Amino acid sequence: MTDVISPPAISAAGSPSAPPYDPRLTNDDLAPLKDQRWGSYNIFAFWMSDVHSVGGYVTAGSLFALGLASWQVLVSLLAGITIVYFFCNLVAKPSQVTGVPYPVICRSVFGVLGANIPAIIRGLIAVAWYGIQTFLASAALDVVLIKLFPSLAPYAVVEDYGFAGLSALGWVSFLTLWVLQACVFWRGMESIRRFIDFCGPAVYVVMFLLCGYLISKAGWSAIDLNLGTVTHTGLDALPVMLGAIALVVSYFSGPMLNFGDFSRYGRSFAAVKRGNFLGLPVNFLVFSLLVVITASLTLPVYGELITDPVETVARIDSTFAIVLGALTFAIATIGINIVANFISPAFDFSNVSPQRISWRAGGMIAAVGSVLITPWNLYNNPDVIHYTLETLGAFIGPLFGILIADYYLVRKQQVIVDDLFTMSEKGAYWYRKGYNPAAVIATVVGAVVAMIPVLFNDAPGMHTTAQYSWFIGCGLGFAVYHLLATRTRLAARVPENHSPTEKVA
Questions:
Q1: Burial of residue 482 (number of CB atoms within 10 Å: 0-12, 13-18, 19+)
Q2: Among 32, 112, 266, 394, which is most exposed with the fewest C-beta within 10 angstroms?
Q3: Tens digits of per-residue pLDDT, 177-222?
Q4: Is residue 6 pLDDT above 60, yes or no?
Q5: Region 252-277 average pLDDT
Q6: DSSP sequence for 156-169
Q7: Is the pLDDT of residue 9 over 50?
């Protein structure tokens, strides 16, 4: 059983009515939810939207091109996604049982003001990836526009018609999708739920159609689950398999950390777990098999291996098929962008100043920031992508480890919801100046140590070690926080006589 202090009554507008929460910590979007209505399918659709994108397609395909046999890749894939499934269940529970988003539940760990540390870290990372994913989706839209209007092709050349590193056509596509995403987001979570319920299945339809088309051209015998030559066998394959597992976990590390932003809408923790099981192990395995089958068939059909689904669709001799396929992948990428990189900074930035920054305002701050960083320049530089992925893991890992250690080991799954919204020094989550020093120290130690192999990537052994930056940061954050919070003067404040008014399983 989990002890959760019952939240106050919620008004029709969604804000707490009694007892009053501190306005410096509260707005309608951050307050505990009154109605938690998402079922297993909604969580399943969330993960479909998160997986079914151009980035997800390329990532899954890359696992089959590591020089491993297909069965070794499948074992690595299942191991990695099972870890993600297990961790997502862990991070989902505190937000589901309390009804509050990720930055608010972090107040129980970092302190009511210190929670801005993990919120801002996660928010800034999401801004960068929001821009990159919008750029990827805009590339698919470019394909559609050029196919429909061939005269636009010259405007896709950066050297001739470009500004800040992006072509004129690229700017049109990027800003079009930027506005579309903002419109979907602005309509609120219910509209977002309906949108992601559509996106994931839509990609499956196109993927099956594309796969069927390629099979009709090449025949069933052309399917090969090994996209490259098998070069690793026996014990020699183990390090590569471990690297593949780490890649899967790192790919999902962002949405995994702030999954509470979505699990808070779940009608029950059991429904969230069912949705996670369908959306992660089951869905990811089926999607990966579709990816590798489709990619392997591009070799006999087009004479080269193509791992980008948009490029594969562009080779089809049908304007309708190209438009349908490219638009579907663009819509799917919008789906992942909204769930993984729009919702998170919306809550995170709102948490910094709830009365000045609403959920919608927080999301628009992220959207504007995603343009200012010119994400196409980041994505076009392989070295920057390489460091970004590993740096993301180094900073997100400790935050994850600390949250899990605090909720499950230090506080024994006990959360006083009222105290998440009070600045009173009598509150369970108030520390000196509002910051829990144990959590801050654990974050710094975990991130700094995890960043060492990333920064010194060229040193012997560091390149391989950098792949595990998330695991290093997570493990250190977990261990250091647990040590400081339970055995030192920095012990976490865990009230014993809180007299819970409601028991929640």
A1: buried
A2: 32
A3: 888 888 888 887 788 888 888 877 887 888 888 888 889 988 888 8
A4: no
A5: 93
A6: G-TTTSEETTEEHH
A7: no
d(CA 66, CA 246): 13
Residue 9, class by beta-carbon neighbours within 10 Å (0-12 exposed, 13-18 middle, 19+ buried)?
Answer: exposed
Write the DSSP assignment of 112-143 as a string of letters.
Answer: TTTTHHHHHHHHHHHHHHHHHHHHHHHHHHHH
For residue 477, how many C-alpha atoms fall within 13 Å in the half-sphere facing its CB?
31
In whole angstroms, what separates CA 267 from the centre of its chain?
A: 21
φ/ψ of residue 162, rounded to 5 = -140, 155
Domains observed in the chain: 2-504 (1.10.4160.10)
Phi, psi of 114 (to 5 degrees): -65, -20
pTM of the model: 0.84
Can you tell me the distance from the alpha carbon of 112 to that of 117, in angstroms, rounded to the nearest whole number? 11
Please measure the distance between the N-terminal and C-terminal CA atoms of the chain and give it in whole angstroms.
5
Distance CA 326, CA 321 (A): 8
Quick count: other Cβ atoms within 10 Å of Cβ 226?
A: 17
- Other beta carbons less than 10 A from residue 456's beta carbon: 14
- Looking at residue 10, what DSSP letter applies? E
Specify the higher pLDDT residue, 336 or 255.
Answer: 255
Angle at alpha carbon of residue 137, lines to 52 and 369, rounded to 5°: 110
Q: How far apart are CA 285 and CA 87, in angstroms?
A: 18
- Would you say residue 96 has pLDDT above 70? yes
Burial annotation 314-335 (CB, 10 A radius, 16+ → b, else e): bebeeeebbbbbbbbbbbbbbb
Q: What residues does 503 pair with on adjacent strands? A: 3
**Could you give phi then psi for residue 195, rounded to 5 degrees?**
-65, -45
Please say whether the beta carbons of 366 and 126 come within 8 A. Answer: yes
What's the pLDDT tens digit per position in 124-171? 888 888 888 788 778 878 888 888 888 998 998 888 888 888 899 999
Grouping H, G, I as helix, E, B as strand and the rest as coil, residue 318 is coil
Q: Tell me the sheet residues that pair with 167.
A: 162
Angle (deg, nearest 10), helices 70-98 and 238-251: 30
Mean pLDDT of 240-255: 86
Question: Which pLDDT belongs to residue 151?
Answer: 92
Count Cα neighbours of 413 within 13 Å in the Cβ-side half-sphere.
Answer: 13
Amino acid 249 reads V
